[in-house]
Design the sequence.
């Protein structure tokens, strides 16, 4: 059979490519080993050793693909006039033989673009596209797609036997690349970790992945459209294409919560990219431990952009003159720090540029110098004191306890945490700063009891964004010591740095810093790292204040923002993409792209969830599904006394139906512990994946809060008490809210195969 012959041909090629890959690894190991035993006579040799070692180790990391398939596709171009047809195998990384002849091209290379973009309408010069299924080191099967030539004819081999792979596909003319490979990938059981999609990237996804680096790319995509995977693959593509720039400037990927980051953390390493920073918004704000949680009304207030004005006003209330004079002992005399002196100094300092903590020094110097001049005129000029310079007098004055305490009252040195804690813990300060900006009721909600010590403060996620904002207003509390300058340490004496290439020269400077005497060069809390490209996932859930945290980390204006306004579930989430862009203020016209096809979520689930989306966000269209699961969602409404037994039975049924896949039971946040207890008491092994001791999302059965389910996927999902979920954001627990409906929409669209609903109360109208 033709199919068996093609599998054998691809197996022979795979064996050849694997042998070449082993040779490439041997060369990298040899380079590493030679660097490890190199004879180093000076700093120059040490630098070269480190550069060679770093290169070898990076190369070994790139070549370590584990048990993943080396390649997954092949493209054949239409033969030229001489009858020669170019053929390329497309894989995870480029592989060449010992003579440097290319065997496999990297999926990110320009030549591989046709593998993802070619369609029947626009073949991009291809005559055939082949998807190769490989498990370990064995070819399992091939799937060929043929394209018409310039005359509109298909050039099929005479003995080609083409078998359609229509099972599970939705009719409707969607142009899918490799439908069989796509269905196989989607049909595989979930593992609790997101995998890469390089073998099944579709045309509309590839167009986004390969978009230019500059500017803001905004991607709107509904459930199952692959927006998260596309964003991560775009990060890998940009690092491959603009490596010299982005390795220096850095790439940041921001997710909604730690559980989500654990879910996606393996994707980029599997694509050969390990130098990317993954973080939540709160994780970007250093030295702030999130231990508390605001209620939804307070969370919404803290995320409001009006907080920018409130914090700026709050800081100005801390810049105030003394109300009365203060006596300061200097030498054998007592001098007076007059209140009017401090008033004049504060007014001048407020007009100076710079942040709060920087200007504090100028206030202290001005007041100390003024007092020193008075002392000098009264005591030193007539020879009654041994101190002979005004500068020495000023230093003496600044070092007195009375002066330090006075300066702290006039212009205190503050951290972001101190400013925020003082503000929220003092209703009078809140009223003074928030008058005309927030209502009295809103200010009362923001107020909270002061903690006795900083360690007792239970900061919330919304607090972290406010602390970051405050740090910009305040500036660093201390001035870091400068790093050792080249030449001062003597380490590079006699080394001609200009003789080295740029990367070697940079390594030499880093080595000099490392070997020099250690000095304190840590970043202050108010200083932070910026990035050349930022990827933001689930961006619809970020508050304006959180978006400002991101904007401050933006070095070049290059960002990829992905999300779905139909899945905006937080109290402080942005109202629209326009409002997101208003906060970010892109430096050039942003580009918006819509992902319209759902590959993961089956038709039955999308149809069931569509009325909920329509009620929550009437202006949004649900994505078009490409596949059916063959399973209609089950809805079970029972009496309260039968709820536990019904939930246990439904859970056991779904776990058995999708084994060895993953199942999630999704409830409101306040009932997670209760549902875990119900299931475990009936012998069902269920866990809360947020617990550090658990297997996380790798467990067969997890219980999730609906509020934290964004971006995750499971083989089967059981949604519990949907009426409780839709009441989020409503003052009446019996009524639904747009945010509650969006949360329910998220919960119902997590499965790739099966969906069930269990309730002991009335169902929301959208499910009737």
Sequence:
């Amino acid at each position: 059979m033709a199919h068996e012959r093609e599998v054998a041909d691809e197996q022979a090629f795979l064996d050849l490519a694997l042998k070449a890959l082993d040779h490439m690894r041997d060369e990298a190991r040899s380079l590493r080993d030679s660097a490890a035993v190199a004879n180093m006579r000076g700093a120059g040799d040490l630098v070269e050793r480190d550069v060679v070692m770093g290169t070898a180790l990076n190369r070994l990391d790139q070549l370590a693909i584990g048990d993943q398939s080396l390649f997954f596709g092949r493209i054949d171009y239409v033969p030229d006039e001489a009858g020669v047809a170019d053929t390329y195998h497309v894989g995870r990384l480029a592989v060449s033989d010992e003579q440097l002849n290319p065997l496999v091209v990297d999926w990110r290379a320009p030549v591989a673009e046709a593998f993802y973009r070619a369609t029947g309408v626009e073949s991009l010069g291809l005559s055939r596209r082949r998807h190769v299924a490989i498990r370990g080191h064995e070819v399992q099967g091939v799937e060929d797609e043929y394209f018409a030539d310039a005359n509109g004819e298909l050039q099929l081999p005479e003995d080609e036997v083409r078998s359609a792979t229509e099972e599970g596909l939705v009719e409707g003319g969607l142009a899918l690349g490799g439908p069989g490979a796509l269905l196989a990938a989607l049909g595989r059981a979930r593992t609790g970790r997101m995998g890469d999609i390089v073998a099944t990237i579709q045309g509309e996804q590839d167009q986004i992945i390969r978009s230019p680096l500059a500017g803001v790319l905004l991607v709107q995509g509904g459930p199952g459209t692959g927006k998260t995977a596309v964003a991560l693959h775009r990060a890998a593509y940009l690092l491959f294409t603009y490596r010299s720039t982005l390795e220096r400037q850095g790439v940041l990927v921001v997710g909604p919560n730690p559980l989500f980051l654990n879910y996606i953390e393996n994707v980029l390493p599997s694509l050969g990219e390990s130098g990317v920073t993954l973080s939540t918004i709160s994780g970007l704000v250093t030295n702030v431990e999130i231990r508390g949680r605001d209620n939804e009304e307070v969370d919404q207030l803290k995320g409001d952009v009006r907080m920018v004005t409130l914090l700026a006003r709050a800081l100005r209330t801390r810049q105030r003159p003394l109300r009365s004079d203060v006596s300061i002992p200097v030498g054998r005399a007592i001098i007076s720090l007059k209140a009017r002196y401090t008033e004049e100094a504060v007014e001048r300092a407020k007009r100076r540029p710079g942040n709060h903590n920087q200007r504090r020094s100028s206030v202290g110097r001005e007041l100390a110098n003024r007092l020193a001049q008075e002392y000098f005129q009264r005591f030193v000029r007539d020879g009654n004191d041994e101190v002979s310079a005004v500068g020495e007098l000023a230093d003496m004055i600044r070092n007195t306890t009375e002066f330090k305490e006075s300066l702290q009252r006039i212009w205190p040195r503050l951290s972001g945490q101190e400013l925020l804690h003082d503000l929220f813990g003092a209703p009078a300060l809140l009223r003074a700063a928030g008058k005309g900006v927030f209502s009295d009721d809103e200010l009362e909600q923001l107020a909270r009891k002061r903690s006795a010590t900083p360690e007792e403060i239970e900061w919330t996620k919304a607090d972290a964004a406010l602390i970051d904002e405050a740090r910009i207003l305040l500036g660093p509390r201390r001035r870091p010591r400068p790093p050792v300058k080249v030449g001062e340490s003597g380490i590079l004496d006699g080394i001609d740095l200009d003789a080295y290439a740029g990367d070697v020269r940079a390594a030499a400077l880093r080595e000099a810093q490392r070997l020099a005497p250690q000095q304190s060069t840590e970043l202050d809390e108010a200083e932070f790292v910026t990035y050349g490209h930022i990827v933001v996932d689930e961006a619809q859930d970020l508050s304006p204040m959180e978006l400002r945290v991101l904007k401050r980390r933006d070095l070049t204006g290059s960002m990829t923002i992905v999300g779905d306004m139909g899945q905006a579930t937080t109290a402080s989430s942005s109202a629209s993409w326009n409002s997101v862009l208003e906060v970010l203020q892109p430096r050039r016209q942003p580009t918006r792209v819509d992902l319209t096809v759902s590959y993961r979520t089956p038709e039955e689930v999308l149809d069931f969830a569509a009325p909920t989306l329509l009620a929550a966000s009437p202006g949004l269209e649900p994505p078009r599904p490409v596949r059916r699961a063959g399973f209609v969602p089950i809805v079970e409404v029972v009496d309260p006394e039968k709820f536990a037994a019904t939930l246990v039975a439904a859970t056991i049924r779904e776990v058995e139906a999708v084994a060895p896949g993953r199942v999630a039971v999704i409830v409101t946040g306040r009932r997670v512990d209760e549902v875990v207890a119900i299931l475990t008491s009936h012998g069902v092994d269920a866990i809360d994946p947020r617990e550090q001791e658990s297997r996380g999302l790798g467990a067969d059965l997890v219980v999730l809060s609906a509020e934290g389910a964004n971006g995750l996927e499971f083989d089967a999902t059981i949604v519990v008490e949907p009426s409780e979920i839709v009441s989020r954001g409503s003052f009446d627990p019996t009524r639904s809210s747009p945010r509650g409906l969006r949360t329910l929409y998220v919960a119902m669209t997590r499965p790739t195969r099966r969906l069930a609903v269990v309730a002991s109360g009335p169902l929301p109208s959208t499910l009737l």
